[in-house]
Every structure is written in C-alpha cells, then in structure tokens.
C-alpha cells in the first residue's frame, strides 16, 4: 500500500466527521511519511533522523508529528545557508545543492514561496543582519504564530 492510498483512506474515514481544509490535507503527507519511517525503525531496531534545521524551526516551517518528529537531529542547529556550505564542503552532487527546496506538500510547492521569504533573507535575519522591512515583518509573524511548535523540540 502506498502513501496515496493511506491518505485517501484517512480522508474517507474523516468524511462524515469533518470537512478537511487545505492545511489538514497538506500536513497528512509529512505525517504519513513519519508513520512509515517509525514503523520501519521499530521493525529494524533503528532510530529516525530528523532533517529540520534552525531556519525552518525559527519560523515553524515544519509539521508537528510529521517532519518535525525525530529521535535525533544532527542538523538542528544549522541554518539552511550553513547546510549548503557544508554540502559544498562535502562535494555533494550539484543536483542536490541546486534543487529548489520543497516539502512536496502539493505539486509545484516550494518552501520559499509558501513562507513568503527566501532562506537567504531568513538566515540573514537570524544572524542579526538587516533585511527588507516587509520580510522582517513576515519572519516576525511566522515566528510568533509558530511558538507552540517549538515547545519541546529536542535537538540531540
């Protein structure tokens, strides 16, 4: 059974209970992926590694109990800018470094278009550098409304 069928089954199960909005539908995919990772990890006596970073955590750009779940997260303290620097240091393939960041929540989705700021702007802001006033307001708003997501995040 693939994730599409699992998502469709869940949508059908909830049909008589509530009408799912776009946020609920979009966040199903990361939660199904995490369900899959934890099922495999439990079956093989393994741990699940997190892939969230400092930039995304700052603005809450992750799904609780989805891509925000993990047993350990080796890149939690790195900004996206630092991750790209590290990938270049490791001589990672260009297709990985140049790929447009996307959580793959829906066709055509990109992280930066969804957040309304680029990772470069976000990382500059986090570093204490000046950014456009409109971008700073977006970052401040995202940070404020996502406080509940950051409570209890473990970085180890």
| Oligomeric state, counting identical vs distinct chains | single chain
Q: Level of helix content?
A: 40-55%
Q: Give the mean pLDDT.
A: 93
Order of helices and strands: HHHHHHHHH
Poorly predicted regions: none
CATH class: Alpha Beta
**Strand pairing plus helix content: what structural class?**
mainly alpha
- Extended strand count: 0
Contiguous helical run count: 9
Q: Rg, please?
A: 17 Å
The CATH level-2 architecture is identified as 3-Layer(aba) Sandwich
Q: Report how far apart the termini are.
A: 33 Å
> What can be said about the biggest beta sheet?
none
CATH fold category name: Rossmann fold
Q: Superfamily at the CATH H level?
A: HUPs
Q: Characterize the overall form.
A: globular
- How many domains? The number is 1
| Proportion of residues in extended strands | under 5%
Describe this structure in words.
This protein is mostly helical and 156 residues long. It has a single domain (3-147), classed as HUPs (Rossmann fold, 3-Layer(aba) Sandwich). 54% of the residues lie in helices and 0% in strands. It contains 9 helices and no strands. The longest helix is centred in the first third of the chain and has 22 residues, at 22-43.
What features would you highlight for this structure?
mainly alpha; Rossmann fold
